[in-house]
Each structure stands twice: as structure tokens, then as C-alpha cells.
Design brief:
binds zinc ion, globular, about 250 residues, alpha/beta, Lysozyme-like, 5-stranded mixed β-sheet, 2 domains
Length: about 250
């Protein structure tokens, strides 16, 4: 599955909470080429790294051992935790990103992400709701892997949660859509950082769970609608179902 270890990163230290990760954070590289990204992630002066890099053709590089703390998330927060690097596996997916020409992720790349995540989920019992994007855990700083990332395809292969609202979720959403304070509270209950503005948090949430909101004309959809609320209610319900089944 993995190429010969041509690339190894010196940028890691020990995880603060023991060697077993409990979370997966997905990124895009945001550089012109895979080679540029690999060089940076392996440069001891860059101060950044990731456990894995997945190229457009699906080729997967392992840069840092899973039991070590790679430096991919930076200042981040999820569900009360701030040292996301200590709890997570970081996967960088090659894509030029918004700076150099954001493009669709390839089919081979998506398949490789799914295969890798499935093996990590199995090995470390990582819960579905703890498979997130960099933008979920660093709301004001990061937009990767962005609205083109195929989260729904991943969830169809049991990688991560994808919201499937019920009739009851839609009914409750009708009340919630006019109550921004309640919606914000629920976003934070799901795990989002409570510090950024409501609008910034809504954009980050939409980036992952409501990508249809993004278009050429609107790259900051910060107004929740009924489906935004219904999907969040569904996520919270599905998270509880997942926890009760575990
Ligand atoms: Zn990132």
C-alpha cells in the first residue's frame, strides 16, 4: 500500500496523551505540486509535517509513525481539546488549494483516503464523528480540505459522519433557523470552537456538511437555512447513536 520510504519527516515529537490516536484530520497540501509539498513536510526548518501524504494518483507516503505527534493542525480546537496534534493522525491530500487553483479530488485519491482511513479506524477504533477537516478545528485560520472534498463518499464507506435528517429533524430545524443563539450553541455542542464569531463558525460548518452552499459567487455562506439546522440536528443524533452502539 505504501511506497518505499523515500520521504521521512524529522518534524515530530511524542504525543502528550499516549501513543494511540483518537482522531483523523484531513488537509489539502495547498502547494503547486506534490513534490513541493513533500519537500516542505520533510524539511527540518519548516516546522510542519503530517503522518501521510496522498498524491493525485493515490500513491501514499508515510512520513511520520502513527504513535508520534506530527505537526499539521497548529492552533486548533475540537470538543474541548486544544492540542489536536497530540490526539490525531494528520493526512495531507495533494491539491493546489485555493491559492494555486483549487481542483476536484481525483477518484484514485479519494479511494486511497478511504482505504487509509479505514485501516486507521480499525486499528485505533477512531469514532466516525472524530474524522474532521482542518477547517473544522481551525475555523478562523484554515479552509482545507475545502468544499470540493467528497465527505459524503467517505461516509458511504463508513469513514466519518454524513448527516441524514429525519422528518423530526426538519420540524425542529424550522424553529432553530430563526434562533441563531440556539444554532450556535448546538454547533459548539457538536465540537466547534465557541470563540470565533457565529458567522465564521457557520461557514466552517457549511464547508464540511453543506458544501452545496458554496458557489462561484459565494465562498463565505454564513447564513444558516433550514437544511443547515436539520443536518446539524441529524449529526448530533447520529453521533449519539454511534456512541450508544460502541
Ligand atoms: Zn491543513
Amino acid at each position: 500500500m505504501f511506497s518505499k520510504p523515500k520521504y521521512k519527516s524529522p518534524n515530530f515529537n511524542d504525543r502528550a496523551c499516549g501513543p494511540i490516536p483518537s482522531m483523523i484530520i484531513l488537509h489539502y497540501t495547498g502547494m503547486k505540486t506534490a513534490k513541493d509539498a513533500l519537500a516542505q513536510l520533510c524539511d527540518d526548518e519548516s516546522g510542519v509535517s503530517a503522518h501521510y501524504v496522498i498524491e493525485e494518483n493515490g500513491k501514499t507516503h508515510k512520513l511520520v509513525d502513527d504513535d508520534k505527534r506530527a505537526w499539521h493542525a497548529g492552533v486548533s480546537f475540537w470538543n474541548g481539546e486544544a492540542d489536536i496534534n497530540s490526539t490525531s493522525v494528520g493526512i495531507e491530500i495533494v491539491n493546489p488549494g485555493h491559492e494555486f487553483g483549487y481542483q476536484e479530488f481525483t477518484k484514485k485519491q479519494t479511494e486511497a483516503v478511504i482505504d487509509l482511513c479505514k485501516s486507521l479506524i480499525f486499528k485505533y477504533e477512531i469514532p466516525a464523528h472524530r474524522i474532521l477537516g482542518h477547517s473544522d478545528v481551525a475555523i478562523t485560520r484554515k479552509v482545507d480540505p475545502g468544499h470540493l472534498f467528497p465527505w459524503a463518499d467517505l461516509a458511504a464507506h463508513d469513514v466519518g459522519l454524513w448527516p441524514v435528517p429525519t422528518e423530526m429533524d426538519y420540524q425542529a430545524a424550522e424553529d432553530m433557523v430563526v434562533n441563531h443563539a440556539a444554532f450556535h450553541e448546538l454547533l459548539c455542542a457538536y465540537g466547534y470552537n465557541y470563540e470565533p464569531d457565529f458567522e465564521e463558525t457557520v461557514v466552517a460548518y457549511h464547508r464540511h456538511f453543506y458544501p452545496e452552499k458554496f458557489s462561484k459567487w459565494d465562498d463565505k455562506p454564513d447564513e444558516p437555512d433550514v437544511l443547515s439546522c436539520a443536518r446539524l440536528l441529524a449529526l448530533i443524533r447520529q453521533k449519539h447513536e454511534f456512541e450508544n452502539a460502541a
